[in-house]
Amino acid sequence: MKLSTVKQALSGLEQLEFQLPNGELVPRHFHVTEVGQITKNFIDCGGTVRSEKVVNFQLWNANDYDHRLHPEKLISIIELSEKILKIEDSEIEVEYQGQTIQKFGLDFNGKQFLLTTKETDCLAKDNCGVPSLKTTKPKVKISQLLELETVGTSSCEPGGGCC
């Protein structure tokens, strides 16, 4: 989900809720302690130089149980970050403290923001010998299947010795 989509979703909300992948809600007294842009420059295992940018939100729970962050306040924080930090309209990554600091993608179901799981991946499968997980099914014409079926019935009859 891109930053512009988040702002659009926020403008139609009365309250702000984030749901974890397990279905639990982030406690309502959370704070957004950071809004920023993270640039990652790296070389993949195939030797290709790459760069990624994400907009980062950090959610934090405090003992401030009376605190509620309202959508319009988060919009103002985002707009200030865009203005001062020159944040681009990039994909959102959310940091949240579980057992360790966890990083999530972000989606929206019309009412709540959904923290989505992220996975690692090899970006250079073709260069480092990792087989593709996608299996391609052979394409067979129906006419070929009918021919095979006809051949099979004539040569494989009871007592024909084919089984």
Would you mind describing this structure in some detail?
This protein has 163 residues and is of the alpha/beta class. The chain has one domain (3-120). The protein is built from 4 helices and 6 strands. The protein has helices spanning 3-11, 71-85, 125-128, 142-155; strands at 18-19, 30-43, 49-61, 92-97, 101-108, 113-116. The chain has a 6-stranded mixed sheet with strand order 1-6-5-4-3-2. It is extended. It starts with a helix and ends in an 8-residue tail after the last helix. The relative contact order is 0.19.
Strand content: 25-35%
User: What are the low-pLDDT stretches, counting only 5+ consecutive residues below 50?
Assistant: none
Give the neighbour order of strands across the main sheet. 1-6-5-4-3-2
Shape, principal axes of CA atoms: extended
Largest sheet: 6 strands, mixed
Cα-atom Rg, whole angstroms? Answer: 26 Å
The string of secondary-structure elements, in order, is HEEEHEEEHH
> What's the total count of β strands?
6
- How many domains? The number is 1
Whole-number mean pLDDT: 86
Number of helices: 4
Cα(first) to Cα(last) distance is 56 Å
Structural class of the secondary structure composition?
A: alpha/beta
Approximate helicity band:
25-40%
